Amino acid sequence: MQWLERHVPKLVLAPSFIAALLFVYGFIGWTAWVSFTRSRLLPNYDLVGTIQYERLFASPRWEVALNNLFVFGVLFIGISMLLGLLLAIFLDQKIRTEGVLRTIYLYPMALSLIVTGTAWKWMLNPGLGLEAMVRGWGFEDFTFDWITDPDMAIYTVVIAGVWQASGFVMALFLAGLRSVDGEIIKAAQVDGIPTHRIYTAIIIPSMAPIFLSAFIVLSHLAIKSFDLVIALTGGGPGYATDLPATYMYAMAFSRGDIGQAASSAMVMMMIVFAIVVPYLYSELRAKND
Amino acid sequence: MTMKMILATSVASFCMAGAALAEPQAEVLHWWTSGGEARAVAVLQEEFASRGGSWTDMPVAGGGGDAAMTALRARVLAGNAPTAVQLKGPAIQEWYEEGVLADISAVAQEQGWADILPASIAGHMQCEGTWCAAPVNVHRVDWVWANKAILDEHGIAMPTTWDEFNAAAEKLQAAGITPLAHGGQAWQDATVFETVVLGVGGPEFFRSALIDLDMDALQSDTMKAVFDQMRTMRGYVDANFSGRDWNLATAMVMNGEAAFQIMGDWAKGEFLAAGKVPGEDFLCASTPGDGYLYNVDSFAMFDVEGEDAVAGQNLLAELIVGQNFQKVFNLNKGSIPVRSDVALDEFDSCAVLSANDMAATSEAGSLLPSYAHGMALRGAQAGAITDVVTAHFNSDMSSEDAVAMLADAVANSM
């Protein structure tokens, strides 16, 4: 009986542990193996060295995808956090309709990225959306054709992504703002410190953990972005808005080049690790201290 | 398990009764799910059933066949391949190299396929000398479709050279009409590109550049001229072309918003469905230059076990190439029969033109597989070329850079 009591947690956790081991780490291992082979339509298991990685980094399309990931990641995370923080601070001013506004800002998160992408595709289409509307008002010279311009198209993905995610970030920050000890704020107010100084010097620094979680959530959203690009631009014009995830999909499922897809998946995983590992490390160290 | 046992016992009892006739069975994986296509497949199903077969339909829609390929990969890896799979071009050879295709030479010889199919198309259906696939139809890719009213109004004849095409386009543009209806999707860019390669370079150049991937041809001045023409044509499309679907581009020609579209003969289906008459409302002609680019759908036959399945496979192969199915299916689909001895009375004038050109080019050796539709090259190489073509078309890249990039991309995709 006592044995059972001691071991019940382990027994209960065992199936999910084994499942995670197999379906997450097992398949990571499988993908790593395949990325060192010459697999085409079907996986084969003869190791041939790093040829797939050499091909990957010689491919101009992969270069575009990586650059896009960088541009999209930095802007998406940066603007979402900034906008989310501003919205949260404004909502934190004890305004009357806070509940309604909070819901409105949070709603985009309830939409599927496919819906977001399709809706923005129509709004950004120069012949149907914003440009046509403003021209219809009489501003004949107005142009906003980023979505058809290969140099600017990636920024339309940022716009749609920020629209979708900043409400969610706002909710995170709002919770953070509310959790700051009211006594400290009152004390600061009594001392006559201006409101903006209270935010910059007291409240925001005490929310550092929230920033970190918002960053982690947004960065993994950015790295695995796929459906937004597919719905919004289809990777185009040309392949100007390709991201690593869409590159991998094209290689694996349209072109029958599984080795190439596996190597791009491994590189994507390493990018995620580069972000998550320092975070985990700092978390674990903080606990050990 | 029990199903298998029941089957086994029933097979055994048949044998004991001395009636060793197998009941043909076929499981068919395809992605013909839209209106006209689904009707066309139903024709085959009925014919199969009327010959005593039992058909298991396995339609997998989505992604232009990508979803079906994923399903196929899973089935083959599980050792349980379907009887017949809609596959085409070099993909058939790729699956053959994985060692999973069946040999249907017996049916092919009995039906005399070698005599009724154009030689270059028959080549796709053979794997190292044995027949492993059955062709369904021939789509021509190098078509230019035009709005007749617009051309008449501006006194323009169907262009027979690219210079004529450019001159006509300039004239239309000056009159405020979009010369070329085009959708900015990679495969549509590639479709236009290959017709330009064929027109500017000629059939021999097409063969060495896009089939043999000859590095000299890929880096030649002719290829630069091809990219120059692509750059010129980029000026003939409207501002909203990015991401537009091909059928919306066809609608632009139909509605008189644009004059020309370069697209395979599935575009004809859109015209006909809208009640337009070839020769009266719209015109069809091959794109400037010699040659014929084909896109042939076919069913590859996978290795299956059991007498019933093999019998089903053979019956299916016989019916697919049979006269009746070839006629009915292609009337529904807008393509033309792959065999040369089908009466064309019920086909429209564009289809008759296509069939005559196919026969003529087959004689002249300029009947060529389409690269943009996966007939000429394997996925990785075709994709690498398409990447360059679409990057060039959608930016201000120079033709010199495009040619250099093309050679690099092809080398890297090997």
Tell me what you see in this structure.
With 289 residues, chain A is mainly alpha-helical. Chain A has 13 helices and no strands. The radius of gyration of chain A is 24 Å and the shape is flat. Chain A starts with a helix and ends with a helix. Chain B has 414 residues and is α/β, with parallel strands linked by helices. Chain B has two domains: 171 residues, 3-Layer(aba) Sandwich (D-Maltodextrin-Binding Protein, domain 2); 215 residues, 3-Layer(aba) Sandwich (D-Maltodextrin-Binding Protein, domain 2). In chain B, 53% of the residues lie in helices and 14% in strands. The radius of gyration of chain B is 23 Å and the shape is globular. Chains A and B meet through helix 12 of A and helix 3, helix 4, helix 18 and helix 19 of B.
CATH class of chain A: Mainly Alpha
**Helix content bin of chain B:** 40-55%
**Order of SSEs of chain A, N→C?**
HHHHHHHHHHHHH
Strand composition percent of chain B: 5-15%
Short description:
Chain A has 289 residues and is mostly helical. In chain A, 74% of the residues lie in helices and 0% in strands.
List the helices and strands and how they pair.
The complex is a heterodimer of chains A (289) and B (414).
Chain A: H1 2-34, H2 51-58, H3 60-91, H4 98-106, H5 113-124, H6 130-136, H7 153-179, H8 182-190, H9 195-206, H10 208-223, H11 227-232, H12 244-254, H13 258-288
Helix pairs in contact in A: 1-13, 2-13, 3-7, 3-10, 4-7, 5-7, 7-10, 8-9, 10-13, 12-13
Chain B: H1 2-16, E1 25-30, H2 35-50, E2 54-59, H3 66-77, E3 84-87, H4 90-97, H5 105-111, H6 113-116, H7 119-124, E4 126-127, E5 130-131, E6 133-140, E7 143-147, H8 148-153, H9 162-174, E8 178-180, H10 186-211, H11 215-218, H12 221-234, H13 246-254, E9 258-262, H14 266-273, E10 282-286, E11 292-301, H15 307-321, H16 323-333, H17 349-364, E12 367-369, H18 379-393, H19 399-412
Parallel strand pairs in B: 1-2, 1-3, 8-9, 11-12
Antiparallel strand pairs in B: 3-11, 4-5, 6-11, 7-9, 7-10
Helix pairs in contact in B: 2-16, 5-15, 10-12, 10-18, 12-19, 18-19
